[in-house]
Design goal:
The complex is a heterodimer of chains A (398) and B (270). Chain A has 398 residues and is α/β, with parallel strands linked by helices. Helix content of chain A is 44%, strand content 12%. Chain A has 3 domains: 170 residues, no CATH class; 32 residues, no CATH class; 164 residues, Rossmann fold (3-Layer(aba) Sandwich), CATH 3.40.50. Chain A is flat, with a radius of gyration of 29 Å. In chain A, strands 6-5-9-12-13 form a 5-stranded parallel beta sheet. In chain B, the strands form 3 sheets. In chain B, strands 2-5-8-1-9 form a 5-stranded parallel beta sheet, sandwiched between helices. In chain B, strands 3-4 form a two-stranded antiparallel ribbon. Chain B is an alpha/beta fold and 270 residues long. The termini of chain B are far apart. The mean pLDDT of chain B is 83. In chain B, helix 9 packs across helix 10. Chain B has 2 domains: 165 residues, Rossmann fold, CATH 3.40.50.300; 86 residues. Chain B has 13 helices and 9 strands. Helix content of chain B is 43%, strand content 16%. Classes of the chains: A alpha/beta (398), B alpha/beta (270). Chains A and B meet through helix 2, helix 3 and helix 11 of A and helix 1, helix 4 and strand 9 of B.
């Protein structure tokens, strides 16, 4: 029962380590949960959860696990028993593990193995049934503390864990919410490649090194130099403007502000397009034709070391994406939007697409291009979390 | 548990916060405190120290702070000077070792409360560099071949404004608490702690106006506890009639620090 809560937390994406779990056990041994579920809730949260962004998720898991407990009444005996003797439960868990063919090792080694197994479990679980049968949900199900089966009585408590968890007041801290520019800025900061500029001619004086070496040298001056460290990231921001993007204009302008304010980029260039990229890109979101540059020029002038962020909802008529366009001025057909986009993707290995609209569940007329583009590009939600994962993607070579 | 933190007459702590503090003390783990600016993260350490009757050592972290600074600094330059003028004790390296705040806390004969304030201001690597020291409560000085071990494990309180993500390995060793913004009832208590004697009517009106202001949409930087306290002080000094607060917010500049927010306020009144 005890360990299944641990497994559940991990299954729900909370990365609780075994060390933290052991501290929890130690704390319960010392009676820090004050023999109440509310105390246990606070203790768990303080020791296992290290970010307010995860509080909401924790609340949900806690609710899911303990929902059958009649929370405003006296605690079931079984639960109280467990709360009072956590270590026995651990011992039982270890005994069980031993029974299942774990070699008899010292506790430490055993725990280490347990952790490794756990690691495996989170990966295996999605597709397989490796652990579920033994320690996973079945233990959780088997225990069956039904409110009906337990005598109910006692007085109501003031502010119980269930109520606290049920309020879910940390919802706003969830990372998948879109918040303010500050969070965007924080995400942009991930886009940082401090590199010691070996190629730069001017070195900087290493003051600390010089002082230390000089003193070690009994006062005869010994000067030390080092290479400066600078951010080497160059960014190209391409934004969809107008039409269906108007709903998200606030969000997009926030992203833009954040990008501008993140003055740590070596270069940042912004261009605009409508729905899809064709032969021209615009310098301003007003998309005036006399204020544009050819996309071809962009490809020639910004080499593949640029990191490209495309922002758009990818919702358009299918013909806007696939059909070749007739250029009235040149009297020829020009490449379709998809061809242009593929060109970009080929040219820039570091390219992500941020989409303010979540991926549609069903294919309909307006969302088919969204699905199609999502399969071609690395597409992320335009939220603090999406941006963060996007930035991480931009930092790695793939 | 012989030592228990129950808040103090200078500081109003929620039940949750108090129990978290006690958990951290009992488990001898660092307590990591996060929360909106102005919710009294830094004040907490002072309150804990006062309540337990211990000395408080504050290590203010800045963007240039290195982990080494908290342990000790070896003053090579002073030693060189001394060697040139032939003054006493150049051979004694130990006298050129200056302890930082963490070193000071370790050296103390009695248990102290150590506050590492705004840890997220420093470099990304900073918390990782302190892992061993906070875990084992000891560090080694290669210059004197000496190991400094804490005589009494200090109670470590760390505050963060979440400007940087803290490394996982560091977080795993901490007890975490997020200070919520106090609700109106709690806030009333806090205000009373700060002012003692205060006109009941004024408190009610001021709090109402304050929470209404926080509820306003489009306010970018919401006023916090410390701003409320300043504001009430200004109201008292200005001799403002409490009844006027429902229609108008005087000294709004004390509460709102951004031009845009002041404009939003002005607009909302119309």
């Amino acid at each position: 029962m005890f360990s299944s809560f641990f497994y559940l937390l991990r299954q729900r994406g909370l990365h609780v380590s075994l060390n933290e779990w052991l501290s929890l056990m130690e704390a319960m041994e010392k009676g820090l949960h004050q023999n109440s579920l509310t105390g246990f809730y606070h203790l768990c949260r303080a020791l296992l959860i290290k970010s307010e962004a995860d509080f909401d998720r924790f609340d949900q898991v806690f609710l899911e696990f303990f929902k059958d407990i009649p929370f405003h009444e006296e605690l079931p005996e079984e639960l109280l028993d467990w709360l009072n003797h956590p270590s026995e439960d651990l011992r039982r868990t270890i005994m069980k593990l031993r029974d299942q063919g774990f070699p008899d090792e010292t506790l430490e080694e055993l725990l280490k193995r347990l952790e490794e197994r756990l690691q495996e479990q989170t990966e295996e679980h999605n597709g397989g049934n490796y652990w579920v049968g033994t320690q996973g949900r079945s233990a959780f199900g088997n225990n069956g503390w039904h409110p009906n089966g337990i005598r109910i009585g006692g007085e109501s408590r003031h502010r119980t864990a269930m109520m606290v968890a049920g309020e879910r007041k940390y919802r706003d801290f969830r990372k998948d919410n879109t918040l303010d520019t500050r969070q965007f800025q924080m995400a942009f900061r991930l886009l940082r490649q401090l590199s010691v500029q070996n190629d730069s001619a001017d070195k900087v004086l290493d003051v600390d090194g010089t002082i230390r070496d000089t003193c070690d040298n009994a006062g005869t001056l010994k000067i030390r130099y080092k290479n400066p460290r600078k951010n080497a990231v160059k960014v190209l921001l391409l934004m969809d403007s107008g039409g269906s993007m108007d709903y998200y204009s606030g969000l997009c302008s926030m992203l833009f502000q954040a990008a501008i304010k993140s003055n740590h980029f070596k270069e940042l260039h912004t261009y605009y397009f409508h729905n899809c990229i064709y032969g021209d890109l615009y310098n301003a979101p007003t998309l005036r034709w006399d204020d544009s540059v050819p996309t071809e020029w962009l490809l020639q002038n910004y080499d593949s070391s640029y990191k490209v962020i495309l922002v758009g909802d990818a919702a358009m008529s299918p013909y806007e994406l696939r059909e070749q366009r007739y250029s009235w001025s040149q009297k020829v057909y020009t490449p379709s939007g998809l061809e242009w986009l593929s060109k970009l993707k080929q040219h820039y290995p570091h390219l992500i697409w941020l989409n303010p609209e979540p991926l549609p569940k069903f294919r309909d007329y307006w969302s088919q291009t969204h699905l199609e583009l999502a399969s071609i590009f690395d597409m992320y939600d335009l939220s603090a979390e999406g941006l963060e994962t996007g930035m991480k993607r931009l930092m790695v070579n793939r | 548990m012989n030592q228990a933190f129950q808040g103090s007459n200078q500081y109003v702590a929620s039940q949750e916060l108090m129990s978290t503090v006690n958990i951290a003390i009992a488990l001898q783990k660092p307590l990591l405190i996060k929360g909106e600016p102005g919710t009294g993260k830094t004040m907490l350490a002072q309150a804990v120290a006062d309540a337990l009757g211990k000395k408080l050592i504050i290590w203010n972290v800045k963007s240039t702070t290195k982990a080494q600074d908290g342990l000790y600094v070896y003053d090579v330059v002073q030693r060189l000077y001394d060697s040139q003028f032939g003054t006493h004790g150049v051979d004694d390296i130990a006298s050129y070792i200056k302890f930082g705040k963490l070193g000071e806390a370790f050296q103390s004969d009695e248990q102290v409360v150590l506050l590492i304030d705004e840890i997220d201001k420093a470099d990304l690597e900073f918390p990782n560099d302190l892992l061993w020291e906070l875990d084992q409560m000891e560090f080694y000085i290669p210059e004197t071949k000496e190991t400094i071990k804490a005589k009494q494990r200090p109670i470590v309180i760390i505050t963060s404004n979440a400007e940087k993500e803290l490394p996982d390995a560091f977080l795993r060793r901490c007890v975490f608490h997020y200070i919520d913004f106090p609700d109106q009832q709690q806030m009333e208590q806090i205000v009373r702690v700060h002012f003692g004697e205060l006109d009941e009517h004024l408190v009610q009106q001021a709090l109402m106006a304050f929470y209404a202001l926080r509820e306003l949409r489009n306010i970018e930087k919401k006023p916090s506890t410390s701003e409320l306290v300043d504001w009430i002080r200004a109201l008292i000094a200005g001799g403002i009639d409490p009844d006027a607060l429902s229609s108008d917010i005087p000294f709004a500049g004390v509460l709102l620090k951004k031009d845009k927010d002041l404009q939003t306020l002005a607009k909302s009144k119309r």
